[in-house]
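Known limitations

Files may contain more than one protein. Parsers should not assume a single record per file. Below, a two-record file is shown to illustrate correct handling: read the sequence, read the token line, then continue until end of file.
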Amino acid sequence: MGRFISIIAASILGLTILGGAWLYSQPNQWQVQHQAQINAPALTVFTQLNSLKKLPQWSSWKAEFLPTLKSRYSGPDSGVGATEYWELDGNSGSTTIVTSRAYDYIEYRVVSSDGYFVATGYYELTETESGTQVNWVYKGDSGNNLLLKLYMAGALPEIDKGNRWSLDNLKQLLESAAN
């Protein structure tokens, strides 16, 4: 019986070491990126993206999908300094617009209240003959933090799915408003 327990313990230890080595070998940086062509002028798209208060109109980051989400806002209604403070399932943090160039670029920063999670995102807008091309990038760096790498391994598919849905929904919202 003692030998069996030793084999089980050695197996668990071996799997833990292999799992840790796999996590450690994963890239520190992560990124989710999506594009959409929206049949609306850059001014219209920019106005929607440049206000965190308008986020619930089109984003998956809203109470309909996240019933425990609580948000409050500070700073200007749009542009640099506009901030959303959020709480979700025992976690909290903020999203702040840090760069806003009229009609072509918006950058934001997401920080958990404990500083454990930090990410940046940006929207690049390019006016085209048929509307506006939107390039949305959301990225971060887990460093050598194995727990954050493990969390992001599970979270990235959901972030990807949510951002894809959000951009499709933004397109639908703005195109239906234009008609």
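...continuing to the second record:
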Amino acid sequence: MKQKEMARLLKAIDMVSIIACLILAFYMAPLETGHLIERFPDLAICYWPLLAIVWVIAIPLLLIGILAWMIFVEIGNDNSFSEINAKRLRRAGILAFVDAIICLVSLTLFTALGLLVTELLLVFVVGLVGCITLALICVALSHLTIKAAALKADNDLTI
């Protein structure tokens, strides 16, 4: 696969993930939260707080999607290993870690209030593990990208 072709594919996948995030946050979350409240009427007080948590969690994920798009543009321009991409990966890692903290705080809050049901526990734990994994991968890739950028700069100087 050629570099330009790969960059187009990466941008297409990124766009699908951004659209999926928007659909999940603004269509599926209100619908499923309503169904959850139908099964557990005690959670009716949590409808808007749950949606607010989902929307707050979606913001860093959408920002990560934007950062990924910018990285994929650089890949298409044959500038994969650059300091700017390393910084973007680091920012994506920080945003993913912020999401993990939001998931952990939300899980703790719902547990403390006695409002945690199995479905919420599953969503928060999957979100927490996913965000921590994404943060670790992004930060590690940021480190590798900065090292590769330095090697590339040295190689460009020696002809």
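Parsers that stop after the first record will miss the second one. For reference, the second record is described as follows. The mean pLDDT is 92.
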